[in-house]
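Hi W., the glutathione complex you wanted:
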Amino acid sequence: RIRTGGGMQGILYASPISTCSRRVMCVLQEVGADWALKPIDLGKGQQKSAEMLAIQPYGKVPAWHGADGFMLFESRAIMQYAAQGSDLVPVSNTERAIMDQWISVEYSYFAPDFLQIYYMKVLKKVSLDEMKIQAHRTALEKTLDLLEGRLTSSGLPYLACAAFTLADLTYMCYFAQFGACELLDTLDDRPALAAWWARCAGRPSWEYIMANRMCEERIAKE
Ligand SMILES: N[C@@H](CCC(=O)N[C@@H](CS)C(=O)NCC(=O)O)C(=O)O
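Structure:
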């Protein structure tokens, strides 16, 4: 099988500092896509403009508009679309199934608990309630234990297989906020997960999308 990927060309409507946007920007960098950024200022409500609603009916970021006219919203769908045929998706059926399992865990269990903490501690769009934070933290720790257990029992550096895949990538935008969410101590007694996160965060794709120069270089010309 020939591994392709990277042939994508288009514009990503995104907020460079939003978690879901970072998921997609990281994939686009990983596969070497030819992409431009249309920055959407969430604080100014630009995600609710008529132009945005035409491409993302919920008025959220990110959304993809390909040079071929293909449009797509939902960060995980864009992530999967961009990664097709690339090294981010294992060729083996079982490895791919394990990748899908951890992506589903992220979406179904990890993100719902993590985001409640993030909304309270960082975005402040939900009023701070320490009891609720504790409950979400306890629930989140179950998933952190499962991730730690997976890495430890497999002896692998990444979640699905020996290579970095979407299973790892999909969590990165949230782990990057662990400091701001006062969750970094959860890694103290989970050494395999801490090492995994250091490995992921050191990827050139991630360092690039987190760097200030990224916006200047990627901004779409009007
Ligand atoms: N499930 C969606 C979530 C999109 C989402 O909630 N985006 C946030 C930024 S991470 C947003 O646009 N918030 C602004 C708003 O809701 O008005 C995805 O994965 O794309």
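The CA atoms of residues 11 and 36 lie 5 Å apart.

W.
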